[in-house]
Write a structure and sequence with these properties.
This protein has 15 helices and 16 strands. The chain is of the alpha/beta class. The chain has 2 domains: about 5-30 and about 60-265, Alpha-Beta Barrel (TIM Barrel); about 275-370, no CATH class. Helix 10 (about 250-260) runs antiparallel to helix 15 (about 355-370). GO terms for molecular function: tRNA-guanosine(34) queuine transglycosylase activity.
């Protein structure tokens, strides 16, 4: 823990990086997975449980929180940390992705984006400066620049236009952020699936000397190999001494392959969203607990896990809860999935420290490929 934002790269193992982000509110061990707490809650989870799974940091969403309960109200109530009872670091995204994907009506220009709320239809304007202001009112520790995220596939001219706009907005966000001891603002590399644009974006953002850099506009429907190619293109251009965050990723396999290429931070709704729909991620791969084969299986999802949801509840009970649409089913599976993700990250960090990440990756993938336990 430190009074300033500081990233320490402790060890590398081929492309994989072991590090640590130190901030006043705590230390983030990297590679790190950040559970998504969109509206101030990691869905179906107590934050005490989230912490117990091994999470050092969670993510909040600027777009959703500015609409309700509003950033100004959160500030009056003492900030997001106090409101939700989470004393550790919080990263807030800029709201740009949600504006592009959720709002039915939007108008984008150099000044920002005007959009209609998906909640009540009210009109709002989000400029780079307003995005940073909102994140400041929320009290987040790591704030993201406002960017324009283009859905793929898209025309090259449209991808280039959005990338250049995002660069200009990054400069305005940096000015608006100013100097905030102990906090950080990250830039976001855009450029779609065009290597030359990704390189231009990364080079320009590097010149801004920000505290960290994110890779945005991926995991939006393109094949995994395209995402990995863009990482291989982009990461060598970014400063090695700054943390690298791949936004919105992803599956356990995505995480392993991205760590191998040098990513330090991840976030994704997948573990909790999948849990609410009856899908579990395990050491043996994905398990659809809705399937009839689990109806009379008294074995747990994972008897080796430290997580009570994974170890102490039978598949038969989880199957019953999910098929009955009981809330507890989604709660237990979300808990299990978040615990599995954090166990995976712990294993990744240990393997890098021991210089055996490639072996760990191969062993993990082999265990996934063997599949689930045989039916009883």
């Amino acid at each position: 823990m430190t009074e300033n934002f500081q990233f320490t790269l402790k060890k590398t193992d081929a492309g994989a990086r072991l590090g640590e982000v130190s901030m006043p509110r705590g230390t983030i061990r990297t590679p790190a997975f950040m559970p998504v707490g969109t509206v101030g809650t990691v869905k179906a989870m107590y934050l005490d449980q989230v912490r117990e799974t091994g999470a050092d940091i969670i993510l909040g969403n600027t777009y959703h929180l500015m609409l309700r309960p509003t950033a100004e109200r959160v500030a009056r109530l003492g900030g997001l940390h106090k409101l939700i009872r989470w004393e550790h670091p919080i990263l807030t995204d800029s709201g740009g992705f949600q504006v592009m994907s959720l709002s039915g009506l939007r108008k984008l220009d150099e000044q920002g984006v005007t959009f209609k709320s998906h909640v009540d239809g009210s009109l709002h304007h989000m400029s780079p400066e307003r995005s940073i202001e909102i994140q400041g009112l929320l009290g987040s520790d790591i704030q993201m620049q406002l960017d324009e995220c283009v859905a793929l596939p898209a025309e090259p001219k449209e991808i280039e236009r959005a990338m250049e706009m995002s660069l200009r907005w990054a400069e305005r966000c940096r000015v608006a952020f100013g100097e905030q001891p102990g906090k950080a603002m990250f830039g976001i590399v855009q450029g779609g699936d065009i290597p030359a644009l990704r390189i231009r974006s990364a080079e320009a953002l590097s010149q801004l000397d920000l505290k960290g850099y994110a890779i945005g506009g991926l995991a939006v429907g393109e094949p995994q190999e395209v995402m990995l190619q863009m990482l291989e293109t982009t990461l060598p251009v970014l400063p090695t001494e700054k943390p690298r965050y791949l936004m919105g990723v992803g599956t356990p396999d995505d995480i392993l392959k991205s760590v191998a290429r040098g990513i330090d931070m991840f976030d994704c709704v997948m573990p909790t969203r999948s849990g609410r729909h009856g899908l579990a991620f395990t050491r043996r791969g994905k398990v659809n607990i809705r399937n009839a084969r689990h109806a009379e299986d008294m074995r747990p999802l994972d008897d080796q896990s430290n997580c009570p949801a994974s170890r102490d509840y039978s598949r038969a009970y989880l199957h019953h809860l999910v098929r009955s649409n009981e809330a507890l089913g989604g709660m237990l599976l979300s808990w299990h999935n978040l615990a599995y993700y954090q166990e995976l990250m712990q294993g990744i960090r240990k393997a890098i420290a021991e210089g055996r990440f490639a072996d760990f990756m191969a062993e993990t993938q082999e265990e996934w490929a063997r599949g689930d336990l045989q039916p009883v």
